[in-house]
Predict the structure.
Amino acid sequence: MKQYLNLCQRIIDDGVWVENERTGQRCLTVINADLEYDVANNEFPLDTTRKSFWKAAIAELLGYLRGYDNAAQFRAIGCNTWNANANENQAWISNPHRKGEDDMGRVYGVQGRAWRRPDGTHVDQLRKIVDNLSQGVDDRGEILTFLNPGETELGCLRPCMYSHTFSLLGGKLYLTSTQRSCDVPLGLNFNQVQVFALLAIMAQITGHKPGVAYHKIVNAHIYENQVDLMRDVQLKREPFKQPKLLINPDIKTLEDLETWVTTKDFEVVGYEYHPAISYPFTV
């Protein structure tokens, strides 16, 4: 939690105003932020200075791991974060590749589960990683990438957190996640939950103890219409003790994640928090 608040304060103190071309709004911006999450000791990085809706973050992660490409699929499992990008992003609505209401195109999990080769066949990146790690194999290329520069026009949004690299070392599984862009007030706690949970889940289904999850953000920013709430409300609050994340031990395979797992298979214990803050969302 201190890492999160320190980054927020750094942006307020040292950030540079940048005009965002996609949204037409200004952002206070810093370049390069590195965060670490101790998954081995279950120090779950959930925001305690405001209420965090962590189940939606877990639901979104499940949708990515399943390769979902439609906002309705995400809504069905408890995540509404894709409604606006699928249906209110004018550039995407006008895109001839859009298949209709709720279509997201070839984003995130689609690339992770069905990366398209030039000949039209597909590569299941996640299956390769799970198979290798389950056999104790780390080829130094256990990389799940959601960024396909050749297909960015085929999706409603370029991936923000676009790369997850898994590493085996000393009997533990580690994760390094790279994020090109981060809306810190709204997106970062979602992203923190997902990085932490992804390592915990992958360690569980591949039979390894989890180590540390490393989270690198290239462009970290606070939109102009969020600055006052961050500076005058959230940063004035004292954080509570970090909670723990419990995962159903019956989740043992990738097939389990693809079929029956829901947010009910995840539990947060010891979560004490300040009231919610309604930060504006910029499409």
Observations:
- The two ends are 27 Å apart (CA to CA).
- The chain has a mean pLDDT of 96.
